[in-house]
């Protein structure tokens, strides 16, 4: 009889899938939270986070972002995201618990988190790098996902001969973006016409 390999067989003892890319380094921890834990975190984040509908000015017109966002962190760490100046909301215990998990895997401390709530497939985030000047250069970013599964694509900023990378981010996973990944690569969560469950993503960062 052929046994179907589970992700645990392939990545036992909480070791990550290493995604080898030139000019960067990605580690993907599958099911770092159990399905039950992940769905509890999703429900609590949906309720406890102070979600906002932000807008950007595009060609002189105000456009709502295709997702809800929130920004939490240590006091006095302001940050500009897509032209929007944001003051962090103070940490809540729920976020501090998730932060501790991310810090253990990343072997680094974080002082802020950007949260995105993708309500449907028409929500997404377009090509960008998390390389704003406020962020400490080449410092780990930990991306935690709860809820629906979404595609996460990466493309090299300058070398079009380097193949795009596609990752599938499932509920309870943590993706670490390490080294020079933000310096050389863009990433996006594309919109999709397929039905997808709502998804909450947290990116833990370090602001200087
Ligand atoms: O939702 C994701 O997986 C990525 C979010 C992201 O890239 C960001 O917040 O900068
Ligand atoms: Fe990002």
From TrEMBL:
Provide an example Pfam family for this protein.
Answer: 2OG-FeII_Oxy_2
Q: Which cofactor does it need?
A: Fe(2+)
Q: Name one GO biological process term.
A: DNA alkylation repair
**What keywords sit in the KW lines?**
Dioxygenase, DNA damage, DNA repair, Iron, Magnesium, Metal-binding, Oxidoreductase, Plasmid
A GO molecular-function descriptor: oxidoreductase activity, acting on paired donors, with incorporation or reduction of molecular oxygen
- Gene3D superfamilies from the entry? Alpha-ketoglutarate-dependent dioxygenase AlkB-like (2.60.120.590)
Q: Which domain of life is it from?
A: Bacteria
| The keyword Hydrolase is annotated on this UniProt entry | no
Protein name from the UniProt record: Slr7097 protein
Q: Which organism is it from?
A: Synechocystis sp. (strain ATCC 27184 / PCC 6803 / Kazusa)
């Amino acid at each position: 009889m052929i046994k179907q390999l589970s992700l645990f067989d392939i990545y036992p003892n909480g070791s990550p899938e290493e995604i080898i890319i030139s000019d960067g380094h990605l580690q993907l921890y599958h099911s770092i939270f159990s399905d039950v834990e992940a769905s509890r975190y999703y429900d609590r984040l949906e309720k406890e986070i102070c979600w906002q509908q932000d807008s950007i000015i595009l060609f002189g017109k105000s456009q709502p972002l295709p997702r809800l966002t929130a920004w939490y962190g240590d006091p006095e760490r302001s940050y500009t995201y897509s032209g929007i100046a944001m003051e962090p909301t103070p940490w809540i215990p729920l976020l501090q618990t998730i932060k501790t998990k991310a810090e253990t895997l990343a072997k680094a401390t974080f002082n802020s988190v950007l949260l995105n709530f993708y309500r449907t497939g028409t929500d997404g985030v377009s090509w960008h790098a998390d390389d704003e000047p406020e962020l400490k250069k080449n410092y780990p970013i930990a991306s935690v996902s709860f809820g629906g599964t979404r595609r996460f694509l990466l493309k090299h900023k300058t070398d079009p001969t380097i193949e795009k990378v596609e990752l599938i981010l499932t509920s309870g996973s943590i993706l670490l973006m390490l080294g020079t990944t933000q310096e050389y690569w863009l990433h996006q969560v594309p919109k999709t016409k397929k039905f997808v469950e709502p998804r909450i993503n947290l990116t833990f960062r370090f602001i200087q």
